[in-house]
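name: query_chain
kind: protein
chains: 1
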Amino acid sequence: VQLQASGGGLVQAGGSLRLSCAASGLIFSIADMTWHRQAPGKQREQVATITSGGRTNYADSVKGRFTISRDNAKSAVYLQMNSLKPEDTAVYYCNLANRFYSWGQGTQVTVSS
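structure:
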């Protein structure tokens, strides 16, 4: 299984970014997917998950601001991030929700105040 996150960047507080994750080597349509993030000096934390059926779940810290979605035809999962805050600064990773494969390098999101 290979997972490639992209779409990060530098944005001002209040701005938006859309992260993408391309997955390969799995039957994507039956996989529950997740986005995690890791800020400097902190543990990796779960941000959002989406089941194969499209049910979503969010960490309290991002609820109402982030939206996870998926496109099974493209084997891709997305994270739309709105109203970004400096505390959202982290490296963002995608993975399967029920079994973690290599986290890869992730994509850096930096929110300036």
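note: The chain has a mean pLDDT of 97.
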